[in-house]
Design a protein that fits this description.
Length: about 130
């Protein structure tokens, strides 16, 4: 599958070191244009009326949580927008609540985080281990 050049990715992650790690690693692929935000509020301001192609949102953010950000933007999200929720917690009930709210992709912050994100970005998420 050929990616459209310049997939616009918003990464909303309050841990600056972790955010830099994900941004720099994903940006090695020239197809990905990653913009990092450290709060849901900053991302919301930057989004305005135009959603990026992909939003990678940390669940636990200061102020507005990642799921609250998703809820605010949900009406604008189409099938062409990927929303990936990040969390350090591997909690089945939390994942189920994300799915019930309409979040289709969920990635745990572990040693496989980059592989998991790339798999979803490349459209291979059906092959991933998310619910095995």
């Amino acid at each position: 599958m050929q990616l459209e050049p310049g997939m616009n990715i918003f990464l909303i992650e309050d841990d600056k070191i972790y955010s830099d790690f994900i941004s720099k690693t994903l940006s090695r692929d020239l197809n990905y244009k990653v913009q990092a935000f450290y709060s849901a509020e900053d991302a919301l301001t930057a989004i305005g009326g135009n959603l990026p192609d992909v939003m990678i949102i940390d669940y636990k953010l200061p102020g507005m949580s990642g799921i609250e950000l998703f809820e605010k933007l949900k009406s604008k999200v189409t099938d062409s927008t990927k929303v990936i929720m990040l969390s350090a917690l591997d909690d089945g009930n939390m994942v189920l609540s994300f799915i019930q709210k309409g979040v289709r992709d969920y990635v745990i912050k572990d040693e496989n985080v980059i592989d998991s994100l790339q798999s979803i970005l490349e459209g291979k998420d059906d092959e991933s281990y998310l619910f095995n």
